[in-house]
Amino acid sequence: MRTQALLFWLLAIFTQAATYTPVASHPKPCTPSTHLLHQFPLGTWIENIAVRSNGQLLVTLLFTPQLYLIDPFTSTPPVLLHNFTSSLGLIGIAETKPDNFIVTSMNYSSTTGQVAPNSSIAWRIDLHHASLSPTSNYTTLSLPPAITKVTDLLEMTFPNGLCSLSPEDDTVLIGDIRQGKIYNLDTDTGNYFVSIFNNLTEAVSQPIFGTAGVDGIHVRDNVIYYTNAGLGTFAKMPIHPNGASAGNSTIISKALNGDYYDDFALDRKAEFGYLVTGSGNSVERVKLDGTGKQKIVVGNLNSTLLAEPTAVAFGRTEWDWDVLYVVTAGGLATPVIEGGEKVVGGQVVAVNLRECLS
């Protein structure tokens, strides 16, 4: 059943869509509305998010090897899709073909912050026949997803960022945040190799995570966009169809106020990037043309609205194409200073960006 509050929120989005008149330039300041879809128990770190074509959200947990499905249009609780019992936590996730996703897992210690050597794995999740069952009031699956192991990622340390490169041959790019390298993985054969390594992907000393390099990665129109958590930079570089460099990297922006960038999402026009700031507890909008235009659109340093956001993704339906879904770590690594240090459970927050997408 749809909750009344969420219905009103979605109705507001739909009404704006029917009445909004685009502005050719100088978009007016945006004031996004937010809606907390779900908050996991205290101690839960949500690492990444992907969106199905039907609008349902897939979220990975870092400290437990669990993949959850969340329907943002209903009041049903998250549904456990799969528990990857051979690993201790999940990291990146990306869709390669319709309802086929690649997920990376590893054995990460929240106590030491270290990853067990040779523990990283890439998995394929086929959701074609997986749907929420009406007989259980949409709280269980009618059929489980099909899970297959792609390959052990023995040469990788912390395979964090993940994006599709070529749906034609099921190739993905994987950013190793500890090594500062971007790998190319053929998910059909399991073969992988280092595709990109430069001074803007490399790992450097970082006060929160020790050593950190390339983090979020996304490809659009033969350009790879990527953040570097250690350098606090957001960069882009032209690439060949096989993912190899086709030119020099350039910095688009640097995180404001000494924060660090984590993951990000690109709008449909590839005009703006929306980057989560991690310790800044916010989402920063950056113009992709490199003019340096950037501003915080939601959240702030001293608010638990977005407590240490880790990843973002745009909705994919007519109802929510302009809604940004943000997941958070709850402040586990960088507590929110809000009348003292505060830590909350990992959050899934919907942010209506209609006024920002002019």
From TrEMBL:
Task: Read off the InterPro entries from this record.
Answer: 6-blade_b-propeller_TolB-like, Hetero-Diels-Alderase-like
Which of UniProt's keywords are assigned here?
Answer: Signal
Origin species: Phialocephala subalpina
What protein name applies here? Answer: SMP-30/Gluconolactonase/LRE-like region domain-containing protein
The UniProt transmembrane annotation reads: none
- Which N-terminal residues, if any, form the signal peptide? 1-19
